[in-house]
Amino acid sequence: MKRVNYSYVIVNLLYLAVVLVVVIPSFGFEGQGGLVPLVLGIPTLAFILFCLGRELLSPRAAPDDTVEVAPWTKAAPVVAWLGVFCVLVLLIGFLLTIPIYMVLFLRSFAKLSWQRCVVAAVTVWALVYVSLELVLHRTLFEGVLFGAILPLL
Amino acid sequence: MFEGFGGALVTISEPHVILTLCVGSIIGLIFGAVPGLGGILAMSMLLPFTFTWDAITAVYLFSGIMGASSFGGSVSAILLNTPGTPVNAATCFDGYPMAQRGEAARALGLSAGACLLGALFGLVILALLIQVMRPLVIAFGHPEIFWLVVFGLVTTATVSQGSLLNGLIAGGVGILLSLVGLNEPTGLIRYTMGSEYLWDGIPLIPFFVGLFAIGELINYSAQGGTIARDNIQASIRGAWQGVMENFRYVVCLLRSSSIGTLVGIIPGVGGETANLIAYTVAVQASKDPGSFGTGNPEGVIASEAANDSKDGGALLTTLSFGIPGSLAMALLLSIFIMHGVSPGPQLILDKPIFIWTLLNGYVVSNAFASIVGLLAARYLAIITRVPVYYLSAIIAVVSLSGTYILRENIWDVVLVVLLGILGFGMRRAGVPVLPLVIGFVLGNLAENSFLLTVRIHDGSYLGFFDSVISWILILTMVVVPLIARLRTR
Questions:
Q1: Which pLDDT does position B363 carry in this prediction?
Q2: CB contact (8 A) between residue B162 and residue A35
Q3: Are residues A78 and A59 in the same domain?
Q4: How far is B246 from chain A (nearest CA, A)?
Q5: Rounded CA gap, B154 and B281, in Å?
Q6: Which residues span the domain enclosing A60?
Q7: How many CB atoms lie within 10 A of CB B468?
Q8: Are residues A77 and A118 in the same domain?
Q9: Contact (CB<8Å) A44/B414
């Protein structure tokens, strides 16, 4: 069945944003600073517009390869859990986030028993703590709630 | 001819190197055996953990993973009819029927022998050709390197999933992304949109970890059912017979290894293609083609020998010119870059020890993986029954914390997750990831060689067309997509 592949459109819109971010300021660079970005960016821009136009105006049948890829509806909870991990790390740091995330994820998403969740969480926490803090002597981010300062964005 | 070989042999005899190789091989076996994971995921996940290591030890770890993951993939292909990695797909055709009729150990032995001998074949060809490549590498100036980068991108885009146009767009965007940040030749800070985070450009390792490890993690976690559930029947009795049987089918072994090596040299054409071509040729060359698909030992040999020999070919272009032809090779290049080793012509000229280190590590890890893989085949297959959520949670935690320690910048973690979503979206959209990655890795090389060519020729663009090598590359670049298009029709 021929219908618009919205994943394809979104990916190409992202590409379009990247190309515009590069091409527009390149016109203002002095010397050769904008030469390669323009030489490359303009044809890429044309290709993206062509592909977007083709997909929106006369959509093709979805490629077979996407059959092996999960739909967005199923991927969304996984992405949300990754988002939760990021937020927790920013707030309370890695060493607290790892066991909390493991227990919450395995218990609520994977429906595993509490014992299994705790065993898995402790094992992974120990693995990360030993390998990074004790062996590599790196300090993991401690979280803004515990005084860690966010680097400039 | 073999300078650096002695040094590499000395390093491989050191206990910590042997341990690293063994650990790499075991990780490669496990990740290879579990469908949906694979060696690429293991490499991208562990990449940040090696940044404090010396370059040679890191290369041994990753050559261990690369060498072992292919055999790991054949274990689940033979025992469970589920290829651990896409490059083992053709092994299922005859490996699983053999297992079904009680010859699993023989099939595993065939695979182990073919993996090792195929890898050896590819590496011997690489060791011989790399010597021949030296004068060719010296003949490559800035314009030729620029064309080579473009050639690598066009070929990769041609053979990647989806249309040529999608591949070219991804390659172009990859290059443009690599230009973000401080441009040393001009001193300009470009395309950062006022962000200080982007002054040093988009970091390479988070780029890899996000697109591969997290992108893949989202996919198989969402699918939930990629891990096999079949019953496993495997004993190692009879495995040795299978190993030795490779010598009975030596013509098939050599033919498939040659196909694998040749296919590996072409940028972008991965093991998936190599093993299917070798399998098809084995069927066509057989006196009994009807027996293929029902448990013919030649089917297993053809697939696995091509699989492992292709790395020798792929390493040739990666090491000689710094043009990675596959995801594994792109990762390998990033390992070199992370450890301050410049990939490309200078590597082959100045640091042959790295090349021999890689080759030695690859040979030893293949031998180690074959032996351990045979002994532990049953347990490897059991790993594939571990609930996918365990793996998903572990990989997320290890990848994200590993990425953080590399630069100790928490925004890298956020970037990894965003790139992971992009990686998943690209898979979902049917847009190839490989050209984006290769464009990103080669972007700065392309820009520098372009600008230097223009400067050397006093602002003239004719410098791009004044050598035979440039013309050969340009013509090949035009012909390859045409041939691919004609073959599709």
A1: 81
A2: no
A3: no
A4: 34
A5: 27
A6: 6-68
A7: 9
A8: yes
A9: no
